[in-house]
Known about the structure:
By secondary structure, the protein is mainly alpha-helical. The chain has a domain of 50 residues. Helices cover 86% and strands 0% of the residues. It has 2 helices and no strands.
Amino acid sequence: xxxxxxxxxxxxxxxxxxxxxxxxxxxxxxxxxxxxxxxxxxxxxxxxxxxxxxxxxxxxxxxxxxxxxxxxxxxxxxxxxxxxxxxxxxxxxxxxxxxxxxxxxxxxxxxxxxxxxxxxxxxxxxxxxxxxxxxxx
Length: 137
């Protein structure tokens, strides 16, 4: 747009004014100063647009960095959740093993008591059988 104004439109306006024959030096100077002011405004607009593009690029970089950080945080959270699940599973397995060991210990205690009772019964003296009169043994 700027190039069109500087190289095309303004020279045509100035040329048309000069060709019409009604332009004086003062008119030409006014037209020239108006064209210069328009050029300056166009250059300022171009610079503002360049600054806006640079700011947008910087914002995009910050957004990309934030996205990367968020993705890393999500991966860390997923890893922590997986570790927690593994720990819970291990704890449940350990609890089950402890209950099984307690049951086995209780059974072993009962078996030991039964064996002790059998040993005590075996160690009791055996009484001889009393026979009634006239019976033979």
